[in-house]
Write a structure and sequence with these properties.
about 60% helix, four-stranded antiparallel beta sheet, alpha+beta, 11 strands
């Protein structure tokens, strides 16, 4: 009984282990898939978000450039401005009104400079930089550029204003008088101007999307990223040199301008992606406790529904070792257990039937043995009695009586000899002759016995008592 109980507990533990194992594996797979899917979807969403911001940034920046380029075109066609650049004595106040009108409320972060080709005449809304002298610094790209020579050109232009403000880029418009280049209108844009136009991004996407703008040749224009000093210009070379660092901590995308040779790059820290994964991890851990409780409930129900019927069946099997066969039948709701129990009861019933048949046969065999002993006792007793009669007749010289007793004793001895069931024809004829002799002595000549047997068959075998008179 102890072994059966241990086996039941072991089976219950086995099922419980499998259920817990499957629940654990499914939970791990679900958690892993969820985390992986969240990471991929968050990464893709982050990159999509960066591209949307870059598209808006391009639209804002290009729109500002187009607006100021249009104003520069208008200004370059103004006769008073052309005359001022060409050296005519135009009052500075008149030019100043036009320039400040062009700048509007951006006059603190954007400056305009009128520079003659010879560098002798100049006018500015701010202090004009020393380098804006075409005669001395003709090698500067803003003076010798060939692209858009009759239009407005954009140049990354890094220097500090007198008020320590950092310049980001410049728009340059060449001024012609009678088809001759007479000077330049240069509009400088400080970094503060770019911060101003991009401040909407700071409000809409606080600390999430950072933007870096640089020219196609790698000259930096704008940078509000946090992963480096803002005085460092972000360009393609910087990204290439720091790729391992950037790939580790940032998601980033780039976009090339359709109008100007400008590259826009957007950066978003991966901590925002990791925060989504962290939130999901907390949610999974929070759901893990009820999942374990539900699994334990299911495990308890299943083990009781499966193990208890099996334990009952094991108990019944163990009880069949006793002399009696208990056949208490309990119908189970589980079809398989019901089938096994039904088959077991059928087997026990058959075994019980076989056992009863065996007991009956044993009893019949015992009775047959007793009868056989009794049947052996009686012929032996008669045979011994006849043998005594025979010798008594011989002593009294009653030969006929002695002969009858002898023949009758032979018949009885032949009948009680159970050692062989097959005899020869000669032995069978000897029995018949003894029987016939006794009958002749009784009936005299009332019948005739004829024997017509070939002596060659005397040695043939046949079943005992097959030949009977």
């Amino acid at each position: 009984m102890f072994r059966e109980k241990m086996a039941g507990k072991s089976f219950k533990r086995y099922i419980a282990a499998w259920i817990m194992g499957f629940a654990f594996i499914l939970t791990v797979l679900f958690a892993g898939f969820s985390l992986f899917y969240t990471y991929i979807s968050s990464t893709n969403y982050g990159k999509l978000h960066i591209n949307e911001v870059l598209q808006i940034a391009e639209s804002v920046f290009e729109g500002a450039i187009d607006d100021f380029s249009s104003k520069l075109e208008t200004l370059s066609n103004d006769r008073e401005v052309v005359r001022k650049v060409s050296g005519d004595g135009i009052w500075a106040s008149a030019i100043s009104d036009k320039l400040y009108a062009l700048l509007g409320n951006n006059h603190e972060v954007v400056s305009v400079h009128l520079v003659s080709r010879t560098g002798e005449i100049s006018y500015s809304t701010k202090s004009i930089p020393n380098m804006y002298n075409p005669a001395k610094f003709s090698y500067l790209s803003i003076f010798n550029g060939d692209d858009n020579s009759f239009g407005v050109s954009l140049y990354p232009n890094i220097f500090e204003w007198n008020n320590r403000m950092s310049n980001a880029f410049s728009l340059v418009k060449k001024v012609y008088y009678n088809n001759e280049l007479t000077g330049y209108i240069i509009m400088d844009f400080s970094v503060n101007y770019l911060k101003k136009i991009f401040e909407s991004f700071e409000e809409s996407y606080p600390s999430r999307i950072k933007i870096a703008i640089f020219s196609g040749n790698g000259s930096g224009i704008y940078n509000n990223t946090d992963f480096t000093n803002r005085n460092v210009r972000i360009n393609s070379l910087f990204v290439e040199r720091n790729k391992e660092l950037i790939d580790r901590d940032y998601l980033y995308e780039s976009r090339n301008s359709r109008k100007n040779d400008i590259v826009y790059m957007g950066f978003m820290e991966k901590k925002y992606v990791k925060s989504d994964i962290r939130l999901l991890s907390i949610a999974i851990l929070s759901a893990l406790i009820p999942t374990i409780l539900i699994t334990l409930c299911i495990m308890f129900i299943l083990t009781n529904r499966i193990v208890k019927p099996i334990n009952r069946l094991v108990k019944k099997v163990s009880e069949t070792k006793e002399a009696d066969f208990p056949l208490e039948y309990t119908a189970e709701s589980i079809e398989e257990i019901k089938t096994i129990e039904s088959a077991f009861h059928s087997l026990i019933q058959r075994i019980e039937g076989y056992h009863k048949n065996d007991m009956e046969k044993v009893e019949q065999l015992r009775i047959a043995e007793v009868k056989a002993l009794q049947s052996q006792i009686n012929p032996h007793f008669l045979y011994n009695t006849l043998d005594a009669i025979k010798w008594e007749a011989k002593l009294n010289k009653l030969d006929k009586i002695a002969r009858i007793a002898t023949e009758l004793g032979g018949v009885l001895k032949y009948g009680i000899n159970l050692n062989s069931s097959v005899v020869t024809v000669e032995e069978e004829l000897k029995l018949i002759k003894s029987y016939i002799y006794i009958q002749k002595e009784r009936y005299g000549n009332r019948f005739v016995f004829l024997e017509n047997i070939d002596k060659e068959v005397y040695e043939c075998f046949l079943p005992k008592l097959l030949l009977q008179p």
